[in-house]
UniProtKB/TrEMBL annotation:
Top-rank taxon: Bacteria
Annotated keywords: Hydrolase, Magnesium
Protein name, UniProt field: NUDIX domain-containing protein
A Pfam short name: NUDIX
Entry cofactors: Mg(2+)
Keyword match Nucleus: no
GO MF annotations, alphabetized: hydrolase activity
Species name: Methylobacterium planeticum
CDD domains recorded: NUDIX_Hydrolase
UniProt domain Nudix hydrolase: residue ranges: 7-153
Length: 171
């Protein structure tokens, strides 16, 4: 399907950090192989978040998704720090994603993912708190490209004055 034919989906996601400056990511199983050199590997990592509901702002959507996916209610949604727009083909339903990313800092690393699988189209394989070093050195498929660098920048206190633009690895 050509990018112009894909359904547009407006999405809010969060870069969720714990007090140890680790970033929370969710592992999903892709609908297709993600690396031609590893044909059986379909795992990719992504931030918590999802599509906006009718009439919902990105901040409202981010807050709702944090509650649904990781059981966090009442988290302060920080500034919008990045965007990523364009065709994305790893989820069950390919989409022309219009993603907005917000900074969220939690007071601890306690999350509840008991409802996560019921909110997702793709199989959820688990969650993990990643250190900055692990993000930078990982050979795993982490979406979008540039996330490790952005995470390091945010942890250092360098909040971009305007959202930075990230891109999909297979775009």
């Amino acid at each position: 399907m050509a990018p112009s034919e894909l359904p547009v989906r407006h999405i809010a996601r969060a870069l969720v950090f714990d007090p140890a400056d680790r970033l929370l990511l969710i592992a999903y199983e892709s609908v297709r192989p993600i690396d031609p050199d590893k044909p059986g590997d379909r795992t990719f990592w992504f931030m918590p978040g999802g599509g906006l509901e009718a009439g919902e702002s990105h901040v409202e959507g981010c807050r709702r998704e944090l509650s649904e996916e990781i059981g966090v209610d009442g988290a302060e949604i920080g500034p919008e720090v990045a965007t990523c727009d364009g065709p994305f083909h790893l989820f069950t339903t390919a989409r022309d994603a219009r993603e907005r990313y917000f900074l969220v800092r939690l007071p601890d690393d306690r999350i509840d993912t008991s409802r996560l699988a019921e909110t997702e189209d793709n199989p959820v394989l688990g969650t993990r708190w990643w250190t900055l070093a692990e993000l930078a050195e990982s050979r795993e498929r982490i979406e979008p490209a540039g996330l490790a660098g952005l995470a390091a920048r945010l942890v250092a206190g360098d909040i971009p004055p305007a959202p930075v633009t990230l891109s999909w690895r297979d775009a």
